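ligand=3-methyl-2-oxobutanoic acid
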Amino acid sequence: MSILKLLAMKKEEQPISMVTCYDAWSAKILAKSSVDCVLVGDSVSMVVHGFDSTLSATVDMMSNHVAAVTRGLGASTEKVLVGDMPFMSFRKGKKEAMRAAEQIMRAGAHAVKLEGVWGHEKIISHLVGSGIPVQGHIGLTPQSIHALGGYKVQGRHEDQREDLIKQAEQLEELGCFSVVLECVPKELSRLISSSLNIPTIGIGAGPYCDGQVLVMQDMLGLNGEFKPKFLKTYLEGGQKYLEAFNDFDKEVKAHHFPSDKESYQ
Ligand code: KIV
């Protein structure tokens, strides 16, 4: 699988699947799945590190998690592995952005994703021109959460709608291989998806995107009470983990674990 395959999938109207992943053990499971793409998202800062926004992600944090996922997927992985460029890493000039992208790519990513477009068009072009595939990310861009005033659906108003369409077109023009649309009304993502030649990958953006992405812990029911409207949970993972911990605790206290089976003679 390569970014060229993703472009072909769009042409052939084959939906693309993407799941976030932050560590080697879950990457090993994902490697055996039919999921097309893996995203080491900056959501790692919230989901794994417990911060209250993605603003706490750093280039070192991202590249460490990309390296772990790369090891878990295996060198000959069929999956496209995308690493997020964290907050501010592409807003402090070309040199700094290139250093950040280099660290993330050297850790094993096949592409980088960055949020927004206005004001960093030249950096996107330079990354693309340097042979680094870039995935755009528009709509609800969590790195701008304080400017957006919260985690809200984007593109409900005419001016926002127009701007999102322009951003998507600009990303394609700059050479991005794909665009993530986050929390956008489904008719707007239908319009954007049908007007672009590159695939759109939606999260909370309805069924008309060319692909869908979910955060692994959200889809596995491992992220507590976080249950936005767009989320479908494919496993009651939190409940299953809890039952397993309690079973272990009970067996230890009842002297049932370890039994002879788990003991060296
Ligand atoms: O960081 C992340 O997990 C993301 C997805 C929500 C697309 O950017």
